[in-house]
Each structure stands twice: as C-alpha cells, then as structure tokens.
Amino acid sequence: MSVRPVPLPAYSGRPGVGDADLLARLRLLTEQVDYALAEIVLRRAAYRRACEEEADWQWSPSGVEALSRPSVAEALARQLAAVERLRLWAQELHWLQEQARLRGLLR
C-alpha cells in the first residue's frame, strides 16, 4: 500500500473559530493561569515546609544536599510541574490574545 500526499484546500482567510468561542477560551485560560499561580504558591509553601521538617535531620540540609531527602525532592518536583503548567497556559493565552487582537476583539 502506498501513501501519497493529499492536497489540502487553500486557506480562505476565514477564521475556523467564532469570536464568541475565542473570547470564551480566553476567559477560561485566564482562570487557568490564576489557578496555576495559586498552585505554585501552595507548592512553594509545601517545599519550604518539607525543607524545614528535614532541618531536624542529623544535619541541616541546604542547597543540593536537601534534594537527597525524598520529601524535599518530591515537593520541589511538584512545584516545578506547576510552573510548567503555568508556562503552557500562559503561552496559549498569549497566542489567543494575539488572535483576538488581529480580529479587533481586544485592544
């Protein structure tokens, strides 16, 4: 069986997504960014708490040594995952804002 390229129809210049849908997605993404920021704050607090709880360990871990403790490393990994989610949401939000500006929906 051979695979050959299929010609795509020419772009007509008309948006595939309606203005109302675009604005609704913008509102949703704005909320997601807010939630991601709140999650980062909570994850940072959990990381600091884990570091403080490990401080009563036989020596006070600092810097890279603290990451040898599983609870500290896990808390930091969760915080970094929250930062990555924020980055993704913010990137999509920025792209949609640019699309909305091109359509004249935003200033």
Sheet having the most strands: none
Radius of gyration, in angstroms, nearest whole number = 22 Å
Q: Helical element count? A: 2
Work out the strand percent.
under 5%
Description:
The protein has helices spanning 19-54, 70-103. With 107 residues, it is mostly helical. Helix 1 packs antiparallel against helix 2. The radius of gyration is 22 Å and the shape is elongated. The protein starts with 18 loop residues before the first helix and ends with a helix.
Structure summarized in a few sentences:
The protein has 107 residues and is mainly α. Helices cover 65% and strands 0% of the residues.
Task: Tell me the layout of helices and strands.
Blueprint: H1 19-54, H2 70-103
Helix pairs in contact: 1-2
Label this structure with key terms.
107 residues, mainly alpha
